[in-house]
Amino acid sequence: MKQSARLAAIDSLGPRFRDRARALDEAESFPYENFKELAQAGLLNLTLAEKWGGQGLWSGDRYVAYYEVLERLAIYDSSTAQLLQVHSHALGILSLLATEKQATRYLIPIAASGQLVASVGSESRPAAAGSGIYESELAPLPGGGWTLTCEKHFASLGPGADWLMIWVAVPGDGDYADRTVVLLVPRDTPEVELIDEWDVMGMRSTVSWGVKITGYEVPADAVFGEPGDWRHRDPRTFTLGFTANHVGAAQAALDFATQWVRARPHLSRSELVQLMLGELAASVFAARSALYAAARLWETADGDAAELASLKALHIAKQTALAVTQRVFEVCGSRSAFRLFPLEQMYRDARTFTLHFRDEEYSRDIGAALVTESFQAKRRIAGAKLHTFPRCYAISTFDFGPCRGLMCLLDMLLQQILLDM
Prior knowledge:
four-stranded mixed β-sheet; 14 helices
């Protein structure tokens, strides 16, 4: 499928997705109709390898095209775009790691029938006091093979998925990321329990429920790749997928505000309103430019350079999405706050979704790369239990007045020393 056809398909489907968004938000319901239509439009095999009937995006020279699709869909519905991203990333990872037999057994039928795959990794319980880490391990069976028992959370797409791609480690003493494999589990198998805990401020129709799996005997051919392949064999990250969504969300809010102003002469004639719109448009342009500058590096440079640029783009896009979805209320005025209009959902969704990454940590990584003149994209996998020391968030989180800068510096030095041990 040509890129123009992909984008045209989204523009055709998008208005219906936007019309459904409010009801899905209120019901905290999975957008089944949206995904039925995405399947019919041929947009559920974006990242499957071409040799297996897919479109081969998110690889080779097709990173820009992939992020264009995600951004365009996010303009219409940020939650549906995030769910497509989750499915596409899972399918892309499986596609890289699969053998011919696994592709024939699993991936080709998944794509042909329009089935969905959820990527399930986080073990951050919503009410837990500690930081989120990965700890689940496979348990060996006496005669060979594995059983899986784990509890995962923030499993976007989970209730609507046909398959769960579970991130889990084989037993051992090394870093968790170096022992990690991915495996496919049917969502409807009796050993899988879905936990409806998704009662949140925004991004409600992502239905990011919890998943509990107890004593599932894993088929030998359902384990994809060797331990550590995600860190050592696959250079890709998820960073620009989130960036593309934030850019699309910001553009959606700006588009609404622009149309609102055009329809109201007392606003359209105001130079102050024109100034605010101009500033917001420039911010969205900057975020989009950063997104595609980083995307082009994924096509032409090594993974470390591309990921460092991606972190910069993510920071810009996150700040832009937050600023635009907030300031459009100042542009449009108090009447735009009525739930008759989509701005309040856009704001809630942006505020919720941008919490997915701790922006200060990734910004610190960018700064550290400047100081050390080195950066490794997968030296530290977010959420993985790579070290035994506790992270000193308390030092850098609280305000110590005049000493805060010194305390933050000490914190960073301590973390660097421990990371280098």
